[in-house]
Amino acid sequence: AGLFAVGPNSLHAQFFQVPPELTLQPNADLGLNVDYVFGNGSDFYKIVAEGNGPTQQQQNTIVQLVRSRGKATYTHASYMGAYAQAIASKCDGIQHVPANGTLSSSQVSLIRSQGQFVTPTMEVFRVAFANPALGPLLGLTPADTYENVVANVASLRRAGVPLAVGTDAVGSLPGILNFPFGRTLHCEIQNLVAAGLGNAEVLRAATSGAAKLYKLSDRGSISIGKRADLVLLNSNPLTNIANTFDINSVWVGGRQVTGILSSKGTSCDPTTY
C-alpha cells in the first residue's frame, strides 16, 4: 500500500516515526496525495483511522478519489470511534475489529449493505492481551477485551459480512515484538473457527475468498492459469482445523520450497511468541 494516510502526532505516526511532511496535514491536497501513492506503484491505498488521524471528511474524500481511479481503499480501525469513521467513509475493507466495545446491529448491517469486508486479525489482539507489555504499543485501554473481539467477529459473520483471514504480522521488531509470518496465520484460522466459522468456510476465507476481496485475480484457487501457490497437508483440516499445521510440502509460484518440516502439534499459546 505504500505511504499510508496517517495524521500528525498520531499513534502510528509516532510508532513508525513518520516524518511530519509525510503525514496527512489538515490542509493537505488529497488529490496530489492519492496521485503520489499510486504514482509510486502502490496497489492499494491505506487509511489509518485513529486519534489525531485523518478527519472524517478527509477519509471520505480519499475514498472517492481512489475509487475514481479504479483502485481500492482499506482502513485500519481497531476501536469503536475509528470503526465508525471507517464505516462512514465507505472504504472497501476494514482491517481489525473493535476491542473496546461491540458493534451495533445497525453498524453491522451498514457494513454489509455498503459492500465492505473485514479482516479481523484476532491473533494480534489475543497475543496483546496475553502479553500486557504490548498493550500500550497497540493503544489498548482497560475497556478493551478479547471477548469484544470475538463477539464482533461472530456478529459480522452472522450478518454475512465477508471476512478475510489476516494477521497484522510484522515479523520481528527487536526489543519490541516478535509476531511471525506463518504461524500467526494458522493460529488466526483457529481463532476464527472458535468464533463460529466452519472449517471449510475459514479455509476459503484464507485462500480464494481473500484473493477475491483483495482483487488478486491470479491466485487463491487451484486452477489452470493461476499462480501455483500450494500447501500440501498430511492431515485433513476439514476434520480438525489444527491440521493446517501438519504440512507435507509447499510450492510458491510453481517452485517447491525445500526444508519444509511438518509443524503438527505446534501450539497457538499466545504467550510463547
Describe this structure as you would to a colleague:
- The chain is built from eleven helices and nine strands.
- Strands 1-2-3-4 form a four-stranded parallel β-sheet. Strands 7-8-9 form a three-stranded antiparallel β-sheet, with no helix packed on it. It has a two-stranded antiparallel ribbon with strand order 5-6.
- The mean pLDDT is 94.
- The chain has 273 residues and is α/β, with parallel strands linked by helices.
- α3 packs parallel to α4.
Detail the topology: elements first, then pairings.
Blueprint: H1 11-15, H2 30-39, E1 45-48, H3 56-68, E2 73-76, H4 80-89, E3 93-95, H5 105-113, E4 117-119, H6 122-130, H7 135-138, H8 146-158, E5 171-173, E6 177-179, H9 183-194, H10 199-206, H11 208-213, E7 230-233, E8 247-252, E9 255-256
Mean pLDDT: 94
Main sheet strand line-up: 1-2-3-4
Strand content: 5-15%
Number of alpha- plus pi-helical segments = 11
**C-alpha-based Rg, rounded:** 19 Å
Tally the beta strands: 9
* SSE class: alpha/beta
Oligomeric state of shown chains: single chain
Shape by Cα distribution: globular
End-to-end Cα distance, whole Å, is 27 Å
Largest sheet: 4 strands, parallel
Q: Unreliable segments (pLDDT under 50, ≥5 consecutive)?
A: none
Helix content: 25-40%
Written as H for each helix and E for each strand, in order along the chain, the element string is: HHEHEHEHEHHHEEHHHEEE
Question: Descriptors for this entry?
Answer:
four-stranded parallel β-sheet; 273 residues; globular; 36% helix; three-stranded antiparallel β-sheet; 11 helices; alpha/beta
